[in-house]
Amino acid sequence: MKFTYSKDEKLKSKTTIDLLFTEGKSVSKYPLRLVYVENSEPNAELIKIGVSVSKKYFKKAVDRNYFKRVLRETYRLNKHLLIDPLEKPHAFMFFYQSKERLSYQEIEEKTIQLFQKFNERQK
User: Has keyword Nuclease (predicted)?
Assistant: First the structure.
């Protein structure tokens, strides 16, 4: 398996994003949250993921961009935890929801726990 975050995996569809926020289910592991929905688009990739950090918690774009990069990197290195149990295409939105500035290692631990929690829900 490749540890990449290709253009095909990026969530860009406005309709899918709207669907995530209206019908999506959620899994949380403080300070991270994963909202997901089964993707019904034809020829959809197995996984589409978007990343978001709230302006409410980080006023400066530099800080928001840093945490988005960290979230994308932790996803990229641990996406096998999400992909392996999936049978149908899914769309995800990955949020950082705290004023706390956790270190990369702490965020990666929480990401792994969050993905495992998602897998338990899927069973």
Answer: yes
Residue 75, pLDDT above cutoff 90: yes
pTM recorded for the entire structure: 0.91
SS3 letters across 97-120 = CCCCCCCHHHHHHHHHHHHHHHHH
Residue 121: C-alpha distances to residues 13, 45, 60, 96, 116 (Å):
25, 21, 35, 20, 9
The rounded radius of gyration (Å) of the Cα atoms in the chain is 14
89 in Cβ contact with 41 (< 8 Å): yes
For the chain, give every domain's residue range.
7-122
DSSP calls for 23-57: H-EEEEETTEEEEEEE--STT--SEEEEEEE-TTT
Which CATH number is 7-122 given? 3.30.230.10
* Number of neighbouring beta carbons within 10 Å of residue 18: 11
**Single-letter residue type at 80:** H
Quick one: tokens of 101? 């500035």
